[in-house]
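---------- Forwarded message ----------

FYI, see the FtsK domain-containing protein record below. Original note from H. follows.
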Amino acid sequence: EDVQKIERKPLPIIDFKTEFLNILHEPAETYGVDNEALKKEAELLTRRLAEFDVQGKIVGVQSGPVISRFEFEPAPGIKVNRIANLDNDLALALKATRIRILAPIPGKSAVGIEVPNRERGLVYLKSNILDSNFENNASPLAIVLGEDTSGKPVVDDISTMPHMLIAGTTGSGKSVFINTIMLSLLYHSAYKHVRFLTIDPKRLELPMYNPIPHLLRRAITEPKAAVGELEKVVKIMDMRYRDFAREGVRDIDGYNEKMRKKNGEIKPYILIIVDELADLMLTAPSEIEENITRLAQMSRAVGIHLILATQRPSVDVITGLIKANFPCRIAFQVASKTDSRTILDMNGAESLLGRGDMLFLPPGKGSPIRLHGPYVSTDEVCDISKLIARLYLYDLLKDTDADLEEIVDAIIDEELWTVFIDTKDPGFDEKRRALSNIIPIEKIDDIIDSGYYPQLDEVVTKEMPIAKEQVKEVDELFHEAAQLVFRHQVASVSLLQRRLNLGYARAGRIVDQLEAAGIVEPFQGSKSRKVLVERKEELEKILGEYR
């Protein structure tokens, strides 16, 4: 009887950037500028100002997707403060929802009167990403911010910010803006260059990115867990400073340049993104403030950056200490002038229009820039997460003797990738069984053991074993497991599962206990651990301590 060999198909060829752009919505027809309508509005504005004894003339108009800015040059002797207080009167006269007045426009001898367009245009991420200022930007931390009042895309670099504070009410576009930042970075940078720690107590936006390998771990949704994760990043920061000192470099760019010359491992940038700071500050205000402040003060040189967002920009959330260390601020529409002053140190954000309308205050600048953020849908985010996960799984499962494309499609479509990242999920066992019908159970457990998300060099090399004193009780199968790994001289969760008929979580706990006892080596990111005990007498002596 002939045995048919399974031919391993070549890996699918995917042009990542092309596929990425294909997922993003095509820009609709660009908003047109109706010069005649603008001329009439300028004349109406001049007449209305004259009714309030403010003489002058319109000397220029800038029209963008959301607002038009009229540049009004007041007659000699007219105080700009008189114009600044007329926002509500002018809004009533022009039948506009809100009007924002810049008195004066920075660098000009004119007052800016920003009036909402009758028909609001939509800003698309795709057209912003394709802009040459972003497309040709070599920085791995380049991001799209949106379009300015003239419709020109604005691009910036997180490494120069170096941390960002975002505030805005519900529906103002705050979370969509975080998606814009994430997608900008994912378009430019692989997980070897940029990693994320995502914290989202609302559980709405950031868990959508769980399938991508850029994360340090799946999105943190419990405020209490966030404290421990921030403390880990502080330790990573300290480790990086020691590594940099050893190599004689000052910052991450210098270190990575040196590593490339030596063919060593580069260190990725780490972005900590928090979508609702208020929830964290309610849970553990002092610990959160301490860790955030320490990171904000020291982490820039080692490539760690923070982006904090809140819908409650009150002084108990954005404390003086936090605010002082976040020079880059972005305000979406807020509820009051007090909230605007808390985030920007000035009024203005209360007059914004919502849905992506923002004031961007770059570090070191006294006046904010008005921008309109791109719209990004939930479907776009999910589809891009799946695209990146698909490419990662192709690499992770490349040794599988089957149709890899078909396997990965099934894992993505049925969301079986969750098996790799959450062993405590109530449906874990059922999903693991379903996944074992697609790929071998040993491969599944190897990925779980090694970790779905690639480990940082600092974690792999510096993670310390659990102290014996911390292990008060051991599993009833601990001794049997110790004898088993001693015989095989290798230890893994999957070995204990197969030979002792255990569930994954219990087998994992026993391996941790074996590590604490000094029987197996600490986790090193490989498929299995070496057994440190070579003689039977030595093993019996250790086991005697746990009887």
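H. also flagged this: The longest helix spans residues 223-247.
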